[in-house]
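pipeline: protein-struct stage 2 | run 1193 | Phosphoribosylaminoimidazole-succinocarboxamide synthase
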Amino acid sequence: MTNEKLLYEGKAKNVYQAENEDEVLMVYKDQATAFNGKKKEILPGKGVLNCQISMLVFDYLIKNGIKTHLVKNLSDHEQLVKKTDVFPLEVVLRNITSGSLVRKFQIEEGQKLSTPIIEFYYKSDALDDPFINESQIHALGIADKKEVEVIKEQALEINQLLIPFFAKADFDLVDFKLEFGKYNGQIILVDEFSPDNC
């Protein structure tokens, strides 16, 4: 990586403009954060590990027909991706009761849900990523009804693909976060899939 313009500095990645105007470079960092970035620590090798895990998952999803922003891996901690208009939403899928779901509803932890739960959170560090419902998403102009339906359909399809993928490695896919963006008018999966978001 040489002299690329920094477009965005995140908690886990930096994003730089690539040579091609329609692409950006995602560089994974060794920084670990908690409480929405309020606590930080450097973990050597974390960026490489997250990049490699994300590449493995994205390759699997692409081979199974999921459209993503991934163009190619450039190094052990860098990926070239399509530049998208990202929806400021975190899409959380829950398959097994855990964490905030258990606290919110005072239910037993570790129970398989009869159907996956989809939750939306407004992506804003300043607001601590608050929960947002579909009506609010539409009213605030974040996404229209059709876009939300496409996001939900894709999220559920990704979930159905990932459950057996992780089961082969003896992992239960309890819950995870996805992000989506638009590229040439099409809604696609963006960001990463790593221990940072599942």
